[in-house]
């Protein structure tokens, strides 16, 4: 970390000694005030629920400028990666810091494809679930269970274990998501086909059956690959911070990633893609475009608890760059499938237009996020709504691992242990039961 010449001084209105705090500079973005010694110096903690002003780590992976609406993976703009690279190149970039040249790309692709199968026992584990289980419930279990199958890659402090666990997770997530889907619809599992691309193989495992030849549609393959790229990392979001915190105890990589999957499931995070599409369905059922005004009224009513799903972001106070790319992909996929007049897409565009002109959204800087259009693309591809968040988890796995490995390699890393402002009862004595 690069120290700044400037220092921060914290003073107290009761005349207590002021404290000087170091400031560190990143390459871009806000500087940070180092408060690590604050408790030792003052006996006080800082209070920041929701991490509104707290950098919990140093990182060199992903950078977001929320005001500009800019997203960079290792310095590269997301627009350039989404247009010029595929998902496995993006994985290489996130994991190792650089885009691969042709030779490295070939080797990395070979390495990942060598690990696409899962232990055959996995299907018996799956059988324990109800057929109507939510795919994210299944995924939380399956990813955690990987640690029971791959004993040679569970030592988080061993770089070789971390490396092989990373490759296994990236390679096996599509297989597990497709298995979770096939299980819920009662179709046979399709084994991976390693001559297909990462996205093409996923489409094959999802939609092929043993009865017929399945041909991957290149437009859908590219669209899915783009979905994976756009979701691959997003700096210190809730699930990534969960993975870091979980991993900071020294648990194994599979367990830490399973914690990320569980966190991602929530509708304020990855679950928003499912919630956004269900919201569009609901408006459609109620009468479609004509009902947008009524719906927006409900969203603005603080007592309704209704949110415009797929809108708003903790960091972006401008259009989410991923949403723009996703809208482009949406157009391509719908055209390819002859669904240009898809009523849900029209509804989404109209809803976006009205919201972007409304004072409520304008004053709060609420813009569409990646989830606003990703559901429409996935639905058009044929992916059922409850599987959307599992696909997000598949794509985010590389980001989680890159961040986890970065943390383990950071000499400043410690087990995560937030403190609290205690507001409960001070010490008191237990009374005999008759006197309570
Ligand atoms: N609809 C209506 N009002 C909203 C929305 C929304 N989607 N998002 C924020 N607001 C309002 C919120 O009520 C608050 O208003 P006020 O100042 O009057 O109290 C103001 O905007 C600021 O919101 P906040 O809740 O303090 O913002 P936050 O940073 O804590 O929350 C968020 C961010 C993403 C959880 C929130 O915007 C939200 O719930 N959005 C809908 C869910 C969603 O689309 N999530 C996906 C995020 S992108 C993908 C991912 O990272 O997983």
Description:
Helices cover 50% and strands 6% of the residues. It has 436 residues and is mainly alpha-helical. A three-stranded antiparallel β-sheet has the order 1-2-3. Helix 7 packs antiparallel against helix 18. It is globular and about 80 Å long. The termini are far apart.
Shape label: globular
Low-pLDDT runs? none
Task: Please tally the β strands and state the result.
Answer: 6
Task: State the order of secondary-structure elements, H for helix, E for strand.
Answer: EEEHEEEHHHHHHHHHHHHHHHHH
Largest sheet: 3 strands, antiparallel
Mean pLDDT: 94
Strand coverage percent? 5-15%
Element layout with pairings:
Layout: E1 2-10, E2 19-25, E3 32-33, H1 38-42, E4 62-65, E5 70-73, E6 76-77, H2 78-84, H3 87-96, H4 102-113, H5 122-126, H6 135-149, H7 159-185, H8 198-207, H9 218-231, H10 238-247, H11 253-264, H12 272-286, H13 292-300, H14 321-336, H15 343-357, H16 359-363, H17 371-381, H18 388-409
Antiparallel strand pairs: 1-2, 2-3, 4-5, 5-6
Helix pairs in contact: 3-18, 6-7, 6-11, 7-8, 7-18, 8-9, 9-14, 9-17, 9-18, 10-11, 10-18, 11-18, 12-17, 14-17
The structure holds carboxymethyl coenzyme *A.
Throw out a few tags for this protein.
single chain; 436 residues; mainly alpha; three-stranded antiparallel β-sheet; 18 helices; 6 strands; globular; binds carboxymethyl coenzyme *A
